[in-house]
Amino acid sequence: MASVHPLIGTGGDPENGANLYPGAVRPFGMVQLSPDTEDHGYGYHTVQSWIKGFSMTHMSGVGCANQGDVFFTATTGPIATQVADYQTPYSHNSESASPGYYQVQLLQWGIRAELSATERTGIARFTFPAHQVSNILVPISHTLNHTAAASVRVVGDRRIEGFVENHLFCNRTPTYKVYFVMVFDRPFTSFGTWFGKWVDDQDRGGTVAPGTRSAEQTSHEQSTGAYANWATEDHEQAVTAKIGISYVDVAGADKNLQSEAAGSDFTSIHQAATSEWNKELSNIEVSDGSAKNHTVFYTALYHSLLMPSLFDDADGRYLGFDGKIHTIPPGHHVYTNFSGWDIYRSEVPLLAIVEPQRLQDMAQSVVLMYQQGGWIDRWPQINLYTEDMVGSPLSIALATAYLDGLHSFDIHTAWEAMQKDATEAPPPGHPYVGEEGIDWINKLQYLPADKVTYGSVAMTQEYSLAYASLSRLAVALGKTTDAQRLYDRALNYRNLFDLEDKFFRPRNADGTWVQGFNPAQDSHGFVEGTGWHYRSFAPADLGWLVKAFGQERFNAAMTEFFNYPSPGWYGQYYNPYNETDIQAPFVFNFSGQPWKSQQVVRRVLKENYTDAPDGVPGNDDCGAMSSWAVLSMLGIYSVDPSSLAYELVSPVFSKAVVHLHSPYPGKAFTITTSEHPDTTPYIQNVTLNGREHSQNWIAFHNITDGGTLHFDLGAVPNRHWGAAPEDAPPSLSDAPPVTR
């Protein structure tokens, strides 16, 4: 665990949305207790020099303002209610972070702040200086997004409780509530609340009312909070606050606190967090390699294990997508905050390997969403639909999980939901849109740009990948007719491929190509990218795409695509900062030049994944970019997860042991290399369980059955290994799905 540096990924320009948080969290925890260095936005950036305070909820690198709920901080002296008065400068020299722990010196006040967490509670220990009145402020109206309402109440002489109501991320209209209970380890001397109204569209704090026990915010233009303080001592004094949260009610927050933290002090909670993270991170053990690579790898693995987030309370209750309270059976959990469009590509395949039991509960959580809300969302947050991004990404995730052999979720209801999303328009008057333009897909087998104005090409490509995944799932479920129908739909992407210029491009409903198409123009039929970025996006059928190009032209085009001078947001070159072309480095495995994929992947790892604060490219998008790094550093990656094929590139460690868990039959999958993998990026030869392996891919069951994959590496390319047509991974149109 010493190799994990949570501050990696917290650097960069606050305006570009790239961020991760450095605070305390358990694996996939409900609580993410972390410092906030801004009043509205993403949470924390190393380049910002003031800490505003600390809040209990954060999402991991989602790219726009989000959460920051249940905000509090510590000060000395008179009570301050404006951010400008209670914020504090800090220094990275007096700051440290490790999994499950964060500490910093609040320089304005001379206070040391330490944070740790259980799954559903946070704990903060503030060490105050001598000869100063010690305050803990709860400016409950302060969030990172847009607070709609709040309530706070002081109970007795050790407790503050209440709720805050915030909008979904990116300031979407729907709101959710987070309830909290904060309990102190010693009685406070005095207390009070405050209430204020915004002035000039800004929160100017409020009027302090000493001795009052409750206050409320009822509109966006108000703010409120509570405080507690402790009398001056002639020596340092430490005050510890335990904070339980719940999305159900205050009673749930209290039960979470009592269940997970009531009998524990700060040290024991910190130690338990350390132990849990050690256990999770030890699912993959790497040997040798540079210290930098160890840090990059384990920090990426850590970031891959933060989301989706636990959602049910300690008593099993959770708020469903129907707005009602439900209870999950003992032994299972409900998860939320699925960044579907991002995580289906890399995080879901990684979790299938290292977290199979948890992934099954995540899959069932998606099923529950459908049962309670009526549809599968692309990007559900809390218990609400955001409909962010495009495609049917969680259908791909469910199909991948089941085809991987993870069957402990309701696949029959899941199939109903996935098939509905793939073929029908949602009923009007609901908070979901399904596959936009589905009627045009059913009529034309593509989305016409003159009828679907945003991302018509990219959405057609994404839908096609979902249909391919569902076709394979239908085969596994014995649904022959559905399998053929979905297979045919999976080929829809071809209708937008121009055989002359070899680009996917927008097309009108009458079949004509949109005029003036510029493949380097952002969003010209595409989503967060250009025609160049989506040029190889046929993950399920790359074999056909290579043939449609002609192998030589395909390799020349992709070589040009990766011939960028330095990493950047180019229209005509590979973009390592987003998921649009995240699979592109591996396409040479399909085109007879796998050594180029080995070369490109090593370059991306070296240039874009570092041990610096800006060492995660772009938004991590809830673990998507980090899990790409984990798999790539191991030397395996799945361009099309439901195909169950994992493309091979050169590992960066001489040995990696992946420990396997039920329901998989194997105990461990070991990856080894020849000496000095850091300086030998090219595969010369591969053996699988002692036998020569000429294919440039392995099947998922080769991993989960356990065994050994060995790479002989060299400093120059071997242009013959894995280069024959029969060595390429399977494609939808020329090979059946990989099965057990």
UniProtKB/TrEMBL annotation:
SUPFAM superfamilies tied to this protein = Six-hairpin glycosidases
The protein's superkingdom reads: Bacteria
Q: Where is this region: Disordered?
A: 720-740
Ranges for domain Glycosyl hydrolase family 92 N-terminal come to 4-246
GO cellular component terms attached to this protein's record: cytosol
Q: GO biological process: what's one of them?
A: carbohydrate metabolic process
Q: Which residues form the Glycosyl hydrolase family domain?
A: 253-714
MF term (GO), any: carbohydrate binding
Listed name of the protein:
Alpha-1,2-mannosidase
Name the source organism. Tunturiibacter lichenicola
